[in-house]
Amino acid sequence: MIISLKDKLYAVQSSEVDEITGPQKWTEVPKAPQWVLGLINLRGNILSLIDFDKFLNNHGNTQQEEKLCYNNTVIIKSGKRKVALALGDVEEVVDVDESHIQLMDEQVNDAVEGVLLRNDRVINLINLPTLFSENEG
After folding, report:
1. How far apart, in Å, are the Cα atoms of 24 and each of 16, 46, 48, 60, 115?
2. DSSP assignment string, 56-112
3. I want to staple 2 with a disulfide (CB 3.0 to 4.6 A). Which of 38, 91, 105, 106 is the partner?
4. Cα gap 20→90, rounded to integer Å
5. For the chain, what is the radius of gyration of the CA atoms?
């Protein structure tokens, strides 16, 4: 699944996506990391809502960021754990041949494990285990 944030494209494996829904109201959590918007109640399930842009691009960065246009909530699963991502737009769901994925030799950003080229655009492949390990606790 390809998603857009500002002027960048990201991909997550659609097998890891549980649901796509609209924006959700959240309850803020004191002392949460800057990229955690808060908690949402999705049909009785309490999930952390992650500002996906801040998670990917603002680790430890205290510069003023423009506010993300939050259009969608994507529920990501890993085993029994789930997390909600607040993000811009879901562009499309496509099949990608693994040979088109170029894994990173060096991790510049722990959340990005590789890139792929599609229609002359670079798409960052998200490392979902990192998302869950960063969100634990």
Report:
1. 20, 12, 11, 25, 30
2. HH-TT--S--PPP---EEEEEEETTEEEEEEESEEEE-----GGGEEE-SS-SSTTE
3. 91
4. 9
5. 15
List pLDDT tens digits, range 13-43.
888 899 999 999 999 999 999 889 999 999 9
pTM listed for this prediction: 0.78
Query: How far is it, in rounded angstroms, from Cα 67 to Cα 75?
Result: 21
Question: What whole-number distance in Å separates Cα of residue 107 and Cα of residue 129?
Answer: 14
Q: Rounded to whole angstroms, how far apart are CA atoms 38 and 131?
A: 15
For residue 6, which of 61, 59, 71, 60 has the smallest C-alpha distance?
71
